Prior knowledge:
By secondary structure, the chain is mostly helical. It contains twelve helices and no strands.
Amino acid sequence: MTDLPDSLAAARPPRNQWWDVWDQFRSHKGALIGSVILALTLFSVLAGPWLWGVDPTFINIRMRDQPPSLAHPLGTDQLGRDMLARLFAGGQITIAVGMTAMALSILLGTLIGVLAGYFRRIDGPLMRLTDLFLALPLLPLLLLMVMLFREPLVGSFGPEGGIFALIVVAIGVTSWMQTARIVRGDVLALKEREFVLASRSIGTPARRMILRHILPNVMSPIMVSATLGVANAVITESALSFLGLGFPPDFPTWGRLLNDGLAYINLSPERVIWPAIALSALVLSINYIGDGLRDALDPRIRGR
Length: 304
């Protein structure tokens, strides 16, 4: 086959850079496997309650502590509630908490990082604030926030809404620091690039400069931080629920299921095994996807 003439080759539209990102991402086997596991997990959690059709809060004392069977594939708990239905319902809550807390964390981290990197006057105070949050012990701070604000929020928004808001805000305001540091470093480098200097020389306002030139060029680390932030939020929520400081006992999350099943681990180990497998699969898949995105979005690695 002969080569195309130079005129036709020159007329061919340039290859979209997102195809290069996809090519690099799919070359990462761990990221592809993680994507498949995450897709299956999300499908199971979202479609499972509709397909299974069992109420996760239905109590049947006569069927308590039943082993796995055709009627109850994962058995029942000490109150006769179906464990498969509770696993599906708990997955929805756990993933919702992880996504919402990640969004809050990324919003705070990006805002503080961009402001600190672009405006030199507030760089010092914002970075000292970041250092202060980094120096605080995370778990005691979370426990303190839960103890102080649990009752007022439950009284205002109800048990489910109040605890959900409390857990999301507590995780979000204690996990933005790494994103802020990464974004700040990228903004400091972008400020010295030619296109930013040229835009500034013609009098472009700071708000427009940030929205049109700075933010689009720091989206890669923000996307990676967002991916890994979901895993961190899921682990933190599960730890709080496992300690009994998260959602109420009748509001299942995977951490709460672990806490409830711990007392029955000798009699019914599957009550601990299945939530633990679900949590591990979710966190590992998200971490592998984050690794793949980091490699795919880094132009220094892309194409190797």
